[in-house]
Amino acid sequence: MALAKSGNYAIGHFNFANFEMLWGVVNAAKKLQVPALLGLAEGERDWVGIKQAVALVKSLREEGLEVYLNADHTYSLERVKEAIDAGFDSVIFDGAKLGIEENIKITKECVDYARAVSSSSGRDVIIEGELGYIGEGSTVRDALPDGVQMTSVGDAQRFVEETGVDLFAPAVGNVHGMLRGSYDPPLDLSRIEEIVGAVNVPLVLHGGSGTPNLSEGIAAGISVVHISTELRKAWHDAMLVHLEEFPDEIAPYKVGKGALEAIQKVVESRLELFSSPN
């Protein structure tokens, strides 16, 4: 990620909740020969299985694929510890709805726990913190989420310094989900550049789906981009098409084939964008 920070390209982070999504991401990363982050938020972890997800990604790495497992949007210290203990490579504590004092306090506890585990186990466990509110949920929306709040440069600097996080996710015009029938608002490029100049860790962009100026955001200093809603929509739309065309097909691996291919196409297009020098 440090290389991405210095090289004006970004690593793609893609959430998955089933095999169509998992293999769509993996196949795209393998085809393009680029690394990828596989993400599971709390609900996705409960669905897939925490230990099972770790085993899946471990088996992919043993085959030579550069994929890593992130515990996305984790809302308590207990669940951060759970993911770390299970073997996740990285975890984000999402305290965006908390006051800054409480957010710093819990995020620092997450960092301290990860450092202790890294020291005792030899594993590198990465902790990401989030500051600024961009809404919740990977959904297609009719309107922007309420309460969106940008991250100030001063708060960003304080947060990173006091918590010791490895990665930092600010609110810079990005929002979770996608607007129906139109693009989401553009990123505030000057705010990104100012925060990059104020902190010494790579920046993560959540809510990348539907964002119109991702390439410029990466050039301004974004090192990791999260994509989830685009994958869910591709899966949903492809499944509807297949089931309408073949209503009697009941073999899951046949029903899901079109969805896998649709997801892979989305991931390839995003990875090509993220991996191109800006």
Secondary-structure blueprint of this entry?
Blueprint: H1 2-7, E1 11-15, H2 19-32, E2 36-40, H3 42-48, H4 50-62, E3 67-74, H5 77-86, E4 90-93, H6 100-121, E5 126-131, E6 140-141, H7 153-163, E7 167-170, E8 178-179, H8 189-198, E9 203-205, H9 214-220, E10 222-227, H10 229-245, H11 252-255, H12 257-275
Parallel strand pairs: 1-2, 1-10, 2-3, 3-4, 4-5, 5-7, 6-8, 9-10
Helix pairs in contact: 2-12, 5-6, 6-7, 7-8, 10-12
In a few lines, what is going on in this structure?
This protein has helices spanning 2-7, 19-32, 42-48, 50-62, 77-86, 100-121, 153-163, 189-198, 214-220, 229-245, 252-255, 257-275, and strands spanning 11-15, 36-40, 67-74, 90-93, 126-131, 140-141, 167-170, 178-179, 203-205, 222-227.
Task: Explain how this protein is built.
The chain is of the alpha/beta class. It has one domain (2-275): TIM Barrel, CATH 3.20.20.70. Helices cover 50% and strands 16% of the residues. The protein is built from 12 helices and 10 strands. The strands form 2 sheets. It has an 8-stranded parallel sheet. Strand 4, helix 6 and strand 5 form a beta-alpha-beta unit. Helix 2 packs across helix 12 (257-275) and helix 10 (229-245) runs antiparallel to helix 12 (257-275). The radius of gyration is 18 Å and the shape is globular. The two termini are 16 Å apart. The mean pLDDT is 93.
